[in-house]
User: Fold these one by one.
Assistant:
Number 1:
Amino acid sequence: MTARIHASTSSAGARASAATHADVAIGVPLPHESAELHVSGEAAYTDDLPELAGTLHVALGLSRYAHARIASLDLSAVRAAPGVVEVLTAADIPGENNCGPVLHDDPILAEDTVFYLGQPVFAVIATSRELARRAAALAKSDDVVRYEPLEAVLTVAAARERRQYVLPPLHLTRGEPAAKIAAAAHRLQGEFEVGGQEQFYLEGQIAYAIPKENAGMLVYSSTQHPSEMQQVVAHMLGRPAHNVVCECRRMGGGFGGKESQSAVFACIAALAADRLRRPVKLRPDRDDDFMITGKRHDAVYRYEVGFDDDGRILGTRVEIALRAGYSADLSGAVATRAVCHFDNAYYLADVDIVALCCKTNTQSNTAFRGFGGPQGALVMEVMLDAVARELGRDPLDVRMANYYGIGERDLTPYGQRVGDNVLAPLTAQLLESSDYRQRRAALGEFNRRSPVLKRGIAMTPVKFGISFNVPFLNQAGALVHVYRDGSVLVNHGGTEMGQGVNTKVAQVVAGELGLPLTQVRVSATDTSKVANTSATAASTGSDLNGKAAEAAARTIRERLAELAAKILGGDPAEVRFENATVEAGGASMPFAQLVNEAYLSRVQLWSDGFYATPKVHWDSKTLTGHPFYYFAYGAAVSEVVVDTLTGEWKLLRADLLHDVGRSINPAIDIGQIEGGFVQGMGWLTTEELWWNHEGRLMTHAPSTYKIPAVSDVPADFHTALYRNENAEPTVFRSKAVGEPPLLLAFSVFLALRDAVSACVPDAQAAPLLRAPATPEAILDAIAALEASRAGDAVTANGTATTATADSSNDASEAVPGDVLGAD
Ligand code: MTE
Ligand code: HPA
Ligand code: MOS
């Protein structure tokens, strides 16, 4: 990597900055609070907890069919296997056999029917993990579980055809899209598809449950949502929530995959621990983790757009068919976010959006960084690319012509104004720093001279809504303790998954109390410290928990200020807390000394804090409201080179410019931007989920499922923070950063489309490149483009056909499909 702009993420750089800013905790690129523990291997993950004497291990017997009735279950051979202590089925669950986060359609263990291949059917508890796994593998035998196969629905298309959904379709419409499309000078319709994505957290799912006295249960869980784990375990046991404590020190990544789906593991470990009165650990193997848990929703789209000579959209309709899998999980909220991100950065006066949560006999898809936002916005970028190619214009110009404006053209389809829009200046700055126009010209020259290697370039913008789109989830709590020596312990409801929430929250508290970061420690997340927390998700971890911790620290500071004014003189409102010193009335004293005086004066030195995001509301019937407190923005320029004989390609250069408001920690924010970009690139290029005709996921290990490696990071990589501050009074005027940068990777996919289209410069169609753009997909797209030049019918995925205004094609019928067609 060369020429980084802004804060360096190298540890030397971060260390130097830390030294320079020793006294200032907030707004500086301090290293992640666990950085040294991460690199030394000292950081403790759930599997690193010392095992208590008598610990047993669980392995799961998984369904061999995508959809079947369990005709018979004879577990005697499993019980007799070496080391086996107990075998449990759904019948052994004392409370509710459900761990679904919203609907009650997620059995912990299958009852009489299995709904996907990989579904847990029984749990084997043995003296070692190895013996448990060996015994569980007996599930492969017909003598153990006999199935009567039922018809399985394995594709989005098949589910859509049958109108088989886990939740009713979502439909948002504004204006008169059909009429506007019909009247437009140009029209275009198309189909597109994007694959799913496995979260591939480096630390797999895991739970360790320890029974406590009087029907208590302590569950260590690698989870983004300890309160939810507490609740589902309590329901499963049929006991009140106060019997259950869930704790998480940190995760080795979650990426949405541990927002709801840590539950089945937490429940089964707790079930076994409760039953056997012994500590029980459940750590599925990576392959089982792949087979059991849901992923990012893959999507199939149909779109239709009418536009003017400048490529300005006059009317558009889209149907987004998402693969929900066998149960609802979080799909309703994911689909809602997809609906609310179809617009991405663009004003759509007349628009119709349908989202379908298709029910298939596959894993139940769930949260993954972006949470439907990427699936909503990607099709818009593909559509605008097709529009630009239809008009023979640079897609960049068509994009900018459609940008949300300020004051006018600023109302989203769901009725929220885009009040904090920085798209135009941000894009201008990026085009300048990336040298886009000159590189576009040079690339055309290169492609004219180069028959086999073709280059492509693209700029794509991002506008991402920040807040949970379920308003009540936007709340958080914290509990801050100041001890007699002046050291501070912060408990908050957020969970650390590598994203740096603990570092940022500690920075906020340190900033509030005028202490160096070394004075502030963040505890493990624990449901007995802060109750009823939301998942650390929707990128809101630092926004919500930072505000709650700030409130708690402020309460303590105000109490201390009262006392300081008494001791030192002056007005309590003018007491200053800086450099671990307290100043008042022209005198000062060390913070620790004041704290000790406060203790001796019986001043309360700990406080809770609470935060609820203002302004957010949502009407789930009309799909309108103000679902987001604010928006985060960004844009990226990517340039690729494609080998048109093999379909292989390389990202040559990427320039990312992203808006994090006023950064609490630029080093962490740049890490999130780069990580999100590379993860998004993996989704759109190398990561391919493939189920066979039986519904068996065949890409269930790194051998067959390729996430990006360090070698995929471009040699020429420029990441910068856009100078901005949040228009809303968020903590430090910062903005959330976790998810939005994933969408910056659209630029890589669109650059690949650009390179493919350069293969057949005189083609009459836009390139039909599906995502992920694997080498096969790239070769297919080149072949389809060549066929279109030859005048053949085009049938590859991503079909686009065009019509001009004078054609007899009736626009209202142009996109097939009952849902879309029914206005
Ligand atoms: N970064 C790391 N290193 N590991 C993760 O698991 N998850 C992402 C993002 N960045 C993730 C990550 C997702 S999906 C979300 S919603 C946010 O972090 C959650 O954390 P935050 O709200 O504190 O940003
Ligand atoms: N993101 C993540 N999780 C959620 C959301 C969201 O927007 N809404 C409900 N759960
Ligand atoms: Mo992130 S997908 O909201 O956990």
Number 2:
Amino acid sequence: MKTQVAIIGGGPSGLLLAQLLHIRGVDSILLERKNKEYVLSRIRAGVLEQGLVNLMEEAGCADRMHAEGFLHDGALISYGDEMFRVDFRKLTDTPVMVYGQTEVTRDLYAAREQAGGKMEFNVDDVVIHDADTATPRVTYKVDGQERRIDCDFVAGCDGFHGVSRQTIPLAMRREYEKVYPFGWLGILSETPPVNHELIYANSERGFALCSMRNDTLSRYYIQCPLSDSPANWTDAAFWDELKRRIPCEFADSLVTGPSIEKSIAPLRSFVTEPMRWGRLFLCGDAAHIVPPTGAKGLNTAASDVHYLYNALRDYYENGSEAGIDAYSEKALKRVWKAERFSWWFSSLMHRHPEQSEFDLAMQTAELEFLRSSAAAQHSMAENYVGLPY
Ligand code: APR
Ligand code: PHB
């Protein structure tokens, strides 16, 4: 088979890129290791920056998001007995969209299917060949049958555990990583959210987050040790611990119910440089990972897709290679700012096992400064709603 862009990975990065390219008449074939149902079964965060909303509109996939999503103007931050609200809308004139990333992925699959997009599922043994030449190709297997795609470019949208990053020779890659000494135990419940906006809580027992998917589906998280397991937590134990970590007015009004999903996610910061090698371009989790605290995973993948889509569009429409030559440096500039914000917010809101008394005093001082300073809240708001592309 031949195509213009071979896309490895059928998560939000690969799907959004495929749909945007399609809108501009650029042909692609997307290869996904799993099947669509598996991809859609993954529970992910639910806060979208305006930049991603704009891309979904450009891709013609934003109708359900606008119909079912919620615009949030701010969020609550609590620590000890204190609580304050950061008003993003007032500070930046920009809201965030609360709409499950699973729904974003569902909408993108629907659009690709409606457009007759070429997607292959349950692919094995994907290998990217000659990425550093003008004639890259991808080989893979479906049901044991070897297949081959000759293409102009390869987009590595296959996440942290994919093959694309590994295709770039180790000697050419610089990798940066920070593993946090705790995880997030998350629960999904068919209960009304405890508050109409998100609550980020730094309590002496650890971090907690009150989020939602819609007005009858809530998402809650509590910080837990890396050694912990969802099996260690009955629903009742989770609800009791959450109540101990959030402000009492919300603990008292919290509507509990059976969990429909319960899982633990580790927290990691990771970046690989460069995000390009020849005609292979890395997008999203294939190139970088953030702790979920700032909800920057998909939102940073979105800016990668924006840069790559426009670079490829410029190549095919104008014969210019300026965009593809600038892609890695341009994407990484925004990636590192998202990494910084995610690291800062994670460090601010979590209790670290090895924290000294001084560290705790610094955390409290930072929270007090954030609470009292319009400039500090403006800085946080700018990052939370999304820095410009
Ligand atoms: N061949 C084909 N597909 C692969 C391979 C492979 N060798 N390895 C992984 N994949 C697929 C995975 O099955 C997955 O569906 O690539 C996809 C990668 O999707 P994500 O991991 O969701 O990464 P990405 O699309 O970059 O999404 C970025 O969105 O899902 C949210 O917050 C999440 O940070 C994440 C962000
Ligand atoms: C979520 O709803 O899953 C979510 C929201 C905000 C975050 C992280 C996760 O910062």
